[in-house]
Design goal:
Strand content: under 5%
Structural class: mainly alpha
Oligomer: single chain
Radius of gyration: 23 Å
Order of helices and strands: HHHH
Number of helices: 4
């Protein structure tokens, strides 16, 4: 819920216009309305970003695969998979959708590495 609504509700409650139960119900309802309206663009942006990130990792590995030594190949695949899954684990509490996108990109990087190996 926007801060302006929260401040207005607090002022109205202090003035005695609303009781605590009404303030709670209004806050809950407004929070659900804002969440439902603004969720799909963020999910779309995360999905497109995840696909672009996955494609970038695969293209980077594929473009440089012949130029790097076998040990370095393994390190590149291991580091990319580890970094993406670690980033997914670190963002799990803040944004479950972003965490899922990063874990998916890590799995795609592993699949690309296995395919190229």
């Amino acid at each position: 819920m926007p801060e302006s609504w929260e401040r207005a509700l607090a002022r109205w409650a202090e003035a005695g216009l609303l009781d605590a139960a009404s303030v709670s119900r209004i806050s809950t309802w407004e929070g659900l309305q804002v969440g439902e309206r603004s969720r799909w663009p963020a999910r779309l942006a995360l999905a497109v970003g995840g696909m672009l990130l996955s494609a970038g990792v695969l293209l980077f590995v594929a473009a440089h695969w012949d130029a790097i030594a076998p040990g370095q190949r393994f390190a590149v695949v291991l580091l990319s998979v580890g970094a993406l899954h670690a980033a997914g684990a670190l963002t799990a509490e803040r944004s479950g959708t972003l965490s899922a996108v990063l874990h998916t990109a890590g799995t795609v990087a592993l699949g690309g590495g296995v395919f190229l190996a």
